[in-house]
Amino acid sequence: MIEDKIGLEILSNRFQAIVDEMAQALFRTAHTVFIKETQDYGAVLVSPGGEVFAASRRYGVLMMVGMPMDDAVKAMGDDVREGDIFMTNDPEATGGMCTHLNDVFLWKPIFHDGKLICYAWTFVHMSDVGGRVSGSIAPSSYEIYQEGIRVPPQKLFREGVLDETFLKMFLVNTRTGEQNWGDMKACIAGLTTAERRVKELLGRFGAEKISQGIVDVMDYAETQARRVISTVPDGVYRFSDFIEADMVGQGLLRVNLTLTISGGEMHMDFTGTAPQVRAALNLPSFSKTGHWMLITGVVNWLCTREPNIAYNAGLVRPMKIHIPKGTIINPEPGAAYGGRYSTSHKVCDVIIGALSQAVPDQLPATDSGQGSILLVSVPDMATGETRVSVIQPLVGGSGGRPVDDGVDGTMVILNFLKNVPTELLEHEMPNLLIRRYALREDSGGAGRYRGGTGSIVEFETNVPFTTITARNMERYLFPPAGRKGGTPGTTGYTILNPDSDSPVDIGKIDILEMDAGDVLRLGTQGGGGYGDPLERPAATVWEDVLDEYVSIETAREKYGVIGTLESGLDAAATETLRREMRDARRGAPLKEFDFGPVREAYHAKWPAALHDAISAITQDMPRVQRQTSYRALYAEIGRRLDAGESIRPGDVPDVLAALQTNGRRGMRAASAR
Description:
Layout: H1 5-29, H2 33-36, E1 41-46, E2 52-55, H3 70-75, E3 85-88, E4 103-112, E5 115-125, E6 154-158, E7 161-162, H4 164-172, H5 177-205, H6 207-229, E8 235-244, E9 252-262, E10 265-269, H7 296-305, E11 319-322, H8 340-358, E12 371-379, E13 386-395, H9 422-428, E14 432-439, E15 455-461, E16 466-471, E17 482-483, E18 493-496, E19 504-505, E20 511-514, E21 519-523, H10 538-546, H11 552-559, E22 563-564, E23 568-569, H12 571-584, E24 593-594, H13 597-605, H14 608-618, H15 623-642, H16 652-661, H17 663-672
Parallel strand pairs: 10-11
Antiparallel strand pairs: 1-2, 1-5, 3-4, 3-6, 4-5, 6-7, 8-9, 9-10, 12-13, 12-16, 14-15, 15-21, 16-20, 17-24, 18-19, 18-21, 22-23
């Protein structure tokens, strides 16, 4: 047993080095753009019980410590042998380890003298696993069967022998079979690398010490996490936000959180969250403690407060989660999951929003809120085959931070997603032309620390039947909030043929078919600003103007900074204008959260108590009744509010009774409004 902190640090770092080398081997041997450039893959070491005891902090997805692998381990029972490699992509059979079908997991047991020591574990996001659309994911899919081939946990290799029959069956059901097998072999390279390094470690220290060390490093991380959490004032903190599901006819879907801090633990209760939907926005968390797609922001906060913290599942043990069954973040079986990251990111936003009330000087303003993947499929005019690739991750800017600006063009939560070099994309997809890829001016919220800018992606296709899908498009309605006096960032936009005589603002994309010569321009969101904009040094604002992050007009209107490109910053005029702006708002406190006029008007119309009443009355209904009643209530109450009626929370049962009196026709009509 390792009893001293030095020994724990040494072993923790040895484990860390193994997963980093493992991830690097996978990355260097991958075939698809999405892995070898964007880096949507993962590599970890897992205890025999299914907890991550080491995860990469340098390569691939950097939030894997909360990956719940216990059910996948249990699914294989006792039939685990040296040389086996297992495979799955099934969210339900793995209890939320997989969260949509495109994430394909491969793992390998590591033995020493016949004893199972641990597992090496990898996943890759496959560009296509079959289903109704190229790329497999469309927001409008409403059941898992539409999203591709589904593989429950099973053996790909049996004691070192490949199951070629199963492999052929899997690959023939995908549009990118050859590339998928290339990425699977990259996973196997990573697993082999990890096995070799772990066995070297076993040879040096022995099985007993390593097995105990696996337990100890996770306990060590848990102790460190509890110590950081214990610095947060005990209390109850509430926050909510909305998933924008308008592109699939679902309107706004609330994610609601009550966060309780007590005794070095975080209790996250999501009662009041919207029910699961007939769309691909459902997140299969199974309400598991510290689930990786729920607590990313908290893990980042822990690592900021304790930079040398041991990076493993011990970090998430103090994060207790309660999510009612049948909600969008704990759906019942059979739901569609492809676009679950829209929901995941919103959960992260509400946790940060609640936690920032407890530690207001430790967390940033709201980031852009969008981690969309713009995927294209085009026919190969010579062969007739379909080419499928990612164009870019559509990620906006980070929120302004308590001590620095937000990061431009990316978010802290998704900083592992890298951009695709234009030259590589155009080589692999020769029928596409990238016309523009740049940062977006005036997109970051104003503040003492400016919100990070969004980006602009514009491309043209020169072949017909080009199909675009883009999951996880968010914050086209409500902008990212500013904090502590900072203003909101901008919302996103999507314009078809922007420079033509008839440009079309198409909003969020579900499935879009483009013709030869069509152009698509997308602008991602900027993060919210942090702190009073009038406290940002005028010289810094002017540098932003010269760098084209901020326009001259915005510098004047939001920051009180005056100048021209010809003569530069006018310090005297700036001082005068800033004094006038401060005088004009004298006595008005700075907003802790500035949600922007559109969302604030929505809050005035729909108070939290009204949302609570709708959730409470529908929560215990059977699934289909719950979904239809929830939508019908929002539609009918919205109609009455628009007509000038006053609807109180206590009126909700009467509204539902009236809808039910009109029968299914009345419910259907209300839901369709």
